[in-house]
Design the sequence.
């Protein structure tokens, strides 16, 4: 597939991440958990909770070949949209678009699951059921501890991509997102050789609409939307996916523990990638207040830097902190 850039299109290319996209993509685990080994601990934890939800519908939001209707993942209108705001946008989907997107994802009329086929006969009620099911799924299975940890991986990915762009330029940025992507003569090429099913189009002009690049923990490789008439979007595998299933690293350096104490040594090791106080507290299973005290000491000692984005402050190791960990 070829994404054709005109003058100015590169300047409007941006990154974002979408909690709604990741919630919908996480349903792929229900179809094929073996493809997502890093999510198995989470999947084991939520299995009992799934029985309390609209499991029939949630399972049907992903086709057996893991395609998802485009309308379930509206392109983010800012870098870090809130799940509730995205759900409102989903709820405003026109009925004809809902019908077309589900049929495009399932490809054939006789492939539609019964719950979808019945629902599309009354699209307004069906859309309301989809929104309600996703909202319950989010608050029951994702928001409490899964999303904060996943969000820290997304933030780290965006920070890494910004450094690559600043230091190496757009060509290196695109090529580093995924092996399927390459930047050739001012055009972005997406290889489809290993797609499970071939997408129904081969090229797209950005044409002033802006290209949005979205990291995901459920993308096995870079992929576009199904419908080429939608604003251009490429979803790519987020860096650091393996850390989702990791326990906090053990502190093995005796000298580091004696110098800093075990809690601060562990925090310093965790902060190889940026994270917020809340994210670190989730990973360590302690209170944000306890983490905040240790972060302040490490920051005052010059071992951490911090950046603010709205109300969220993220910490990362400084060069001195890296040297100390080594």
Sequence:
């Amino acid at each position: 597939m070829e994404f054709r850039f005109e003058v100015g299109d590169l300047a409007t290319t941006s990154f974002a991440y979408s909690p709604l996209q990741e919630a919908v993509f996480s349903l792929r685990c229900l179809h094929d958990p073996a493809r997502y080994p890093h999510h198995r601990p989470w999947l084991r934890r939520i299995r009992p909770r799934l029985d309390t939800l609209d499991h029939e519908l949630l399972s049907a939001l992903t086709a057996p070949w893991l395609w998802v209707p485009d309308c379930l993942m509206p392109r983010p209108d800012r870098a870090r949209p809130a799940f509730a705001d995205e759900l409102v946008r989903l709820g405003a989907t026109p009925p004809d678009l809902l019908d077309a997107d589900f049929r495009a994802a399932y490809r054939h009329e006789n492939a539609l699951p019964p719950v979808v086929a019945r629902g599309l006969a009354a699209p307004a009620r069906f859309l309301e059921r989809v929104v309600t099911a996703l909202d319950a799924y989010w608050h029951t299975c994702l928001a409490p501890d899964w999303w904060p940890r996943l969000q820290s991986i997304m933030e780290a990915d965006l920070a890494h991509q910004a450094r690559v762009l600043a230091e190496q330029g757009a060509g290196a940025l695109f090529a580093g997102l995924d092996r399927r992507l390459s930047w050739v003569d001012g055009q972005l090429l997406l290889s489809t050789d290993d797609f499970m099913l071939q997408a129904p189009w081969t090229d797209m002009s950005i044409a002033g609409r802006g290209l949005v690049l979205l990291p995901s923990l459920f993308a096995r490789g870079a992929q576009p939307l199904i419908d080429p008439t939608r604003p251009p979007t490429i979803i790519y595998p987020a860096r650091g996916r393996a850390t989702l299933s990791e326990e906090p690293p053990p502190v093995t350096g005796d000298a580091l523990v004696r110098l800093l104490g075990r809690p601060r040594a562990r925090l310093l090791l965790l902060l190889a990638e940026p994270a917020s106080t809340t994210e670190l507290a989730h990973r360590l299973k302690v209170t944000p207040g306890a983490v905040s005290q240790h972060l302040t000491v490490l920051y005052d000692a010059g071992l951490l830097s911090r950046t603010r984005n709205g109300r969220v402050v993220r910490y990362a190791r400084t060069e001195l902190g890296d040297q100390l960990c080594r």
Summary: The two ends are 43 Å apart (CA to CA). The chain is about 45% helix and 15% strand.
